[in-house]
Amino acid sequence: MFTTTTPGLQEFNMVRSGDIPLKLAPYPTLVGTPITGHLVLTTLHTNDAPASLTRLMEMGVDPYIISAAVSGIVAQRLVRLLCNNCKKKVDVPVLSLNKDIRSILKGETIYKSVGCKRCNFTGYMGRIGVFSVLVVSKRIRELILERKGVDEIRDIAIDEGMKTLIEAGAYKVAEGLTSLEELYRVVF
């Protein structure tokens, strides 16, 4: 457990914490530690990277601390890998695709799961990560200080180059690593 009684911040250069609890009262130093130049890695359960910023505000962390302390957020989901032994090409009309991924999957070969003895008739073997990385830019810091909502933060992050989880997953579908059904199941 990380507490305020930890002697001398100069004794370490990184803190790895488990889930941030819903009530931060016992962990005041944990959130402020990055301001001192120490790296803090932790987990927080949200739908995507931008939602982590607003969740911290909802948990009572002052926006100026979030703005100063958070430099980046990685959202992740695990999708099942298609079995290479039995995956099957499928024709998917472009217009039936989610609008956010049409351009990524247009002209790509899409596969679906089938099932065989090798994969125990599931159509999948193993998993792979789908990641969305939000870099906390100067503009994002301003939005945090202004207590803007998750939608506005997400829009600016996308404008600045953040790929959403659905977009990152669409690249896995385009590579033939997972199915469209699996992506939709995990991300939506």
TrEMBL record:
GO cellular component: plasma membrane
InterPro entries tied to this protein: P-loop_NTPase, T2SS/T4SS_dom
Domain Bacterial type II secretion system protein E intervals: 35-185
Keyword line: ATP-binding, Nucleotide-binding
GO function terms (MF aspect): ATP binding; ATP hydrolysis activity
PANTHER family xrefs: PROTEIN TRANSPORT PROTEIN HOFB HOMOLOG, TYPE II SECRETION SYSTEM PROTEIN GSPE-RELATED
UniProt-recorded name of the protein: Bacterial type II secretion system protein E domain-containing protein
Lineage, uppermost ranks: unclassified sequences, metagenomes, ecological metagenomes
